[in-house]
Amino acid sequence: MSMEAPAAAARIRVNGADELLTASTIAEFLSQRGLDPAGRGIAVARNGQVVPRARWQDEPLGAGDRIEIVHARQGG
Amino acid sequence: MTNETTNAVSLSADEIERYARHIVLRDVGGPGQLKLKRARVLAIGAGGLGAPLLQYLAAAGIGTLGIVDDDVVSLSNLQRQIIHGTPDVGTPKVDSAAAAIARLNPHVNVICHRERVTADNVRALVAGYDVVADGSDNFATRYAVADACFYERKPLVTAALGTFDASLTTLRPFERGPDGTPNPTYRCLFPSPPPPGTVPTCEEAGILGALPGVMGSLMALEVIRAIVGFGEPLVGKLLMVDARSMRFEMLTYGWDPDNPLNGTAALTAG
């Protein structure tokens, strides 16, 4: 176990896929992915709980978090 | 039991045999089957979701099924809208669905609403039913139905499809949870529709036909649960299905005080 897993290499799961954690809040996370910062048509859940958009600026992201981005769908 | 005479609904010998597998269930039984027979359910859309939804609700013995759809059956519908058949191409979907339901279960009374849901007709439409199930194909209808069901105090089971993804939830925002907080609205999840043109329709993007089969069947289960009352409904819970990897995720969501229907501002404006 020499130089493996430095502290910076924290990971999260995004819609079931493993990713590097590079954002500190939900808002930063969405902006890095180029998603509408107003969040129209998007809901975001952290560890199974949908985060109200008023908290996106402050809701922290941490190593091991499970994030789900839910896109509003209209199909029937 | 106050009004037994006006509410007198019973099951014939034929119905008791037909619904035997429900009646034997401890959580349904004869009383549950009578609730289904007394129930009036409105299905918005007789398409991909509406097809299996209507078939299972009809088979389950819902007394009155309303169907709203202004479309006619086209050949490209048949890959998923399995309540319609090849000879039905060109027929109004409400008529084709009503004929299929009559073949499946003659005890069901079908009401066809061959019209488009609009802001003007939606409240009157949902007001005539006990439970509403939305399997429509556009955001305008979805928001109109969700708002109308809030104002008319009707439980709403709503599912929506992407290409390989889908979601399902049950809305009862006119009621409160055990801690006194109002149940969430659809607008607590998605306050307003996405910008026009940013989310493709099934027509534009395609859809794997079996996916609405799964989701429409789950809608039927939620509708039957809302009527009979067993287990835990999907209130405040969003079931997300990713059919590419067969990932089923249950997310919880709560009342958002900023939502325009029963949020803080709306409640204080009273």
From TrEMBL, chain A:
Which top-level group of life is the source organism from? Bacteria
Q: Name one Pfam family in it.
A: ThiS
The record ties this protein, via InterPro entries, to:
Beta-grasp_dom_sf, Mopterin_synth/thiamin_S_b, Thi_S, ThiS/MoaD-like
Q: Which Gene3D superfamilies match?
A: 3.10.20.30
The protein here is known as Sulfur carrier protein
- Which organism was this protein described from? Chelatococcus composti
TrEMBL record, chain B:
Cite the EC number: 2.7.7.80
- Which intervals hold domain THIF-type NAD/FAD binding fold? 19-252
Instruction: Please give the Gene Ontology molecular function terms for this protein.
Output: ATP binding; molybdopterin-synthase adenylyltransferase activity; sulfotransferase activity; thiosulfate-cyanide sulfurtransferase activity; ubiquitin-like modifier activating enzyme activity
Catalytic activity, reaction form? [molybdopterin-synthase sulfur-carrier protein]-C-terminal Gly-Gly + ATP + H(+) = [molybdopterin-synthase sulfur-carrier protein]-C-terminal Gly-Gly-AMP + diphosphate
What general EC class does the enzyme of this chain belong to? transferase
Q: Which UniProt keywords apply?
A: ATP-binding, Nucleotide-binding, Nucleotidyltransferase, Transferase
Its biological purpose:
Catalyzes the adenylation by ATP of the carboxyl group of the C-terminal glycine of sulfur carrier protein MoaD.
Concerning InterPro entries, the annotation shows: ThiF/MoeB/HesA, ThiF_NAD_FAD-bd, Ubiquitin-activating_enz
By its UniProt entry, which SUPFAM superfamilies does this protein fall under? Activating enzymes of the ubiquitin-like proteins
Per the UniProt record, the source organism is Chelatococcus composti
Q: Does the keyword Nucleotidyltransferase apply?
A: yes
GO CC terms of this entry: cytosol
Family listed = Belongs to the HesA/MoeB/ThiF family.
Designated name of the protein = Molybdopterin-synthase adenylyltransferase
Subunit info here reads: Homodimer. Forms a stable heterotetrameric complex of 2 MoeB and 2 MoaD during adenylation of MoaD.
